Task: structure prediction
Amino acid sequence: MVDPLSEAEKNNATFASLGLSEPLVKAATEQLYTRPYPIQRDAIPPILRGKDILGIAKTGSGKTASFVLPILELFNRTKRVNGRYASVLVLVPTRELAGQVADVFGLLGEHLFPKVKTVAVYGGVSINPQMIAVHGADIIVATPGRLLDLLAQRALRLSDVEILVLDEADKMLELGFADEMNRLVDLLPQKRQTILFAATLGDAIQDINAALLRTPVKIEVVEEETNIELIEQLAYKVETERKGPLLRYLIKTEVMKQVLVFVSSTRTADNLVVKLTKNGIQAAAIHGQKGQNVRMKVLQNFKAGKLRVMVATDLLARGIDIQLLPYVINFDLPRSPKDYIHRIGRTGRAEAAGKAISLITPDDEHHFQIIQKKMGKRVEQIDTIDLDLAGY
Ligand code: AMP
Result:
């Protein structure tokens, strides 16, 4: 089939040009989605046309919004909400992902009228509140086991499902949900739209594809190769106890307007923020122990340029996409060379050069050698022994 969008149209795509209407464009803008990610550009139009999708994409690619936005758009067009049973079912492998995906439906659906009701159901918590919550839900985001329990309790039926999304399908299989998935699929209407996302296309996913999808549109997101050459890398040799003052010195003397600082633990992140703030440098942390709302607020402020220093642990940094970030500082070195490249890659995006600085303690030296070797590039190292850090 000929792709209805030409190359030029694709490159200039906006959420509106992909077929989303105003309430959704507005919500995406409020989430600081300035323009569609490639996966969104490729997935939104065919989903709106009712096509099945086989998407190969990892977390961080923007895959969630790539199905959430068009599904909400379809609700917006038909205005068919609050039926007896849900018309959209999203199956996910974990409780965390269920919550996250449901949150994205909520956030991106904020301006829709009538409201689309999304409910997340997952195991590990009492089933009773969920039995009540699923009433009148338009979209159910569920882990397979709990959904089967709810069905056994007759809390809901799947007879009205028009769209099935299997998110992180490979992980669902890995976690041993194959049986549950099959049982659930048997309860769904034959005539439906099926959207499948997996991180990689293995045999098991091919099998599901053959069994469940009808001439799907295949979308594959190739991870962007970081162009190391665009990034100016620098390392400062420093004693552990002088890392904090050196960080503040660098931020102040280099007059860094925006910097992303990576640390290895939640505790270090919180400590750094306290110290930076005390020294008059505006900073906030994002890490796993901050609530989703706090994390989003911090990220939003940082993206909007209202926050000078964001301190992050690796886990949380995966999904961060900030265009034209001028500085990244590795306050702590990451464990793997791959993570190092991933971190510093945040400054070298969109053909704009950035600067990546690493603080190297005597204990880190050997590890930093390995990182440089794997990267195939030597990084200039500056000694800070004679640097006067008093007052920082
Ligand atoms: P996901 O791959 O769905 O887990 O999304 C990764 C991250 O990218 C999330 O933090 C989203 O909020 C963010 N995101 C998704 N789409 C966009 C976009 N078009 N522009 C900027 N950020 C986005």
